[in-house]
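Researcher: Please predict.
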Amino acid sequence: MRVLVVEDEQLLADAVATGLRREAMAVDVVYDGKAALDRIGVNDYDVVVLDRDLPLVHGDDVCRAIVEQSLPTRVLMLTAAGDISDRVAGLELGADDYLPKPFAFSELVARVRALGRRATIPLPPVLERSGITLDPSRREVLRDGRPVALAPKEFAVLEVLLRANGAVVSAEQLLEKAWDEHTDPFTNVVRVTVMTLRRKLGEPAVIVTVPGSGYRI
């Protein structure tokens, strides 16, 4: 899952990003609304965690831009204001969910994951295919009932492949969804991660390489 965190309190923004990365998400961070619009125009995000009170461009205007462009991106709006009318105003702008500050990080993760499932074709919370069961909320993977311990990026790649529901996923798409914008696009990190993932999942191999196209399960 690719997430953009937009928050002008840098310590909070960085802490949220670090926590989401530990949950096997690819996370980019910006600290003002103008930078958010720039990133949204370049990258495809599943979820934007958006502070409402932003410098340069207000969070309301960032939310409007996402809605007006008919992007599949889901918006989780954050605000220090806990007033009901403030929440209603945010939702009426087109935000998909609303979380007042201060918040429990576990709730933030649960809401981001729930929105991520709605960003494309709706999928069940637990993904199953070819004997593999992946539970994102528990960070748990089973192969034919056997627990499989995966590193965060391996988990993220497997989740992207399972969400494709049998379709081929290119290396570029895996790089887009499982790594952040600072990753070198010419790196072989995708190939190495898939190779390690195959080994950990065991035989018979379930990740198929489609020459010139990518990978599928």
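Model: The radius of gyration is 18 Å.
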